[in-house]
# Entry
Amino acid sequence: MNIAIIGTGYVGLVSGACFADFGHDVVCVDKDAGKIAALQAGQIPIYEPGLDAVVARGAATGRLRFTLEIAQAVQGAEVVFIAVGTPSRRGDGYADLSFVFAAAREVAAALTGFTVVVNKSTVPVGTGDEVERIIREIRPDAAFAVASNPEFLREGAAIEDFKRPDRIIIGVEDEAARGVMAEVYRPLNLNAPPILFCGRRTAELTKYAANAFLATKITFINEIADLCEKVGADVQEVARGIGLDRRIGAKFLHAGPGYGGSCFPKDTVALIKTAQDQNAPLRIVETVVAVNDQRKRAMARKVIAACGGDVRGKTIAVLGLSFKPNTDDMREAPAVDIIRALQDAGARIRAHDPVAMEQAAAVLDDVAFAADPYDCAEGADALVLVTEWEAFRALQFDRLKTIMRHPEVVDLRNIYRPMEMARRGFHYIGVGIADA
# Structure
């Protein structure tokens, strides 16, 4: 099939590359001339394991192309995916849909023949209705349908998630669109993923509901971790104990510094706004957002307490900056709030991340970035593990003990165990477990 994708951000680029790998002919469009030129030269603007190889393969076969010309991409396309950003609108938390609506207007002007216009962006309930209205107003003569096909891609595992999805959600309002979308995903039939066809509004809400539920699991176990510290329990064993219940499941029950990234923070807030507008407030989700916002700075207070209650003039080594491993995404990363809170308390920050330091430098001031974990820990009064990169899972603690000013480790991801660290001569503090 001929597919056009509007937007070469995380979702658009991954989707376009994978669709091309399936055998579809894909043209990806973006207004950023620098980004398009880089992609045409084989340079990937985001860090995502395996994406460079998939893009290169698609470009080599000619099935994946990049352009600045939206009309060129849309004309003749059977399916047009809108995959532009929907950030939180400054000041009120609503999803900013200006990029979606602008794309819809440009797509409308270029439509030729029957086309399914698909919202791939995460959008509030009713956005598909508005996209349909915009296109109908601009092109009353056009033959088209509007569908919703939310993405469920984990950063760091997006290629696997796209090609072997847990499920595919497709919101359509007519049989013609259903048939086209079934053909788009036909290459996945061999893996037999569940494909749920539903109403457009149902699909839109499903995406927000899924993210809110996962954010709730994270926040729940974080609060249980706080209780574990008070009563002398181990949150990791609690999480395993409840996660073995198939009704609950083990995923997203890892205590830590709170959720971040491009999805959970903005999507939970946008869902809250939608619910408030409909006079159906989501009190659980409202509490999740409030607790998560408070948690990041609470982790900074944990570090300060580990340093005797005062970090003024002390050097704190921070390992891990991106909001999760295997990505360079710094959006709403807990490390940002933790570092700023430590700086407010007078600490000097040295930091290392395997891939995110360039991105971090754009959002953090007065941070010394280190080439590796040991350069980062040199002369430090405390070492703080914020992101659980694999490179941090087998640190040479004998070496660290000789180069650090004080053998203090605050592990916000519970990568290590208290008794092991005590045996190595470190004062160790985890999350939801007894201190060593």
User: Anything to note?
Assistant: The chain is about 45% helix and 15% strand. The radius of gyration is 24 Å. The chain has two domains: 2-198, 236-429. The CA atoms of residues 141 and 317 lie 62 Å apart.
